[in-house]
Specification:
mainly alpha; elongated; single chain; 47% helix
Length: 136
Amino acid sequence: MFVVMIILHILISVFLVLVVLLQASKGAGLAGAFGGGLGGGMGAVFGGRGAAPFLSKATTVLAIAFMLSCIVQLKMSPAVGRAPQSVIQREAEEKARRQPAEALPMVSEEMPVVTPPVEEVETETQPAAATDTTQQ
């Protein structure tokens, strides 16, 4: 579906560029090349006022379609919702995935396992008996 939206977006873009280029500007643009004006071929095809109203409406419709296509593609994009990640982080993750498990140090019977000594800590559960300091 995403590929279909990209193709549709490209078609809308091409038609939008063509419609904008066909509009008459101060120098008559490309509309003059196709017989723009009242006496030319464009006047016969698009009516007595020429192609201006049709091309103006087509530009508006294609511009709206272009913007909607952009928004739809943004929402459909697979990158939306993913946290940004730097190139260094991506490379580190790929390297960690590619690193074979045999490269990690393994504990074997030949290697003695050294555990740190555990010190016993005396805890008093009851207070020491009070000694009688008074002399009799």
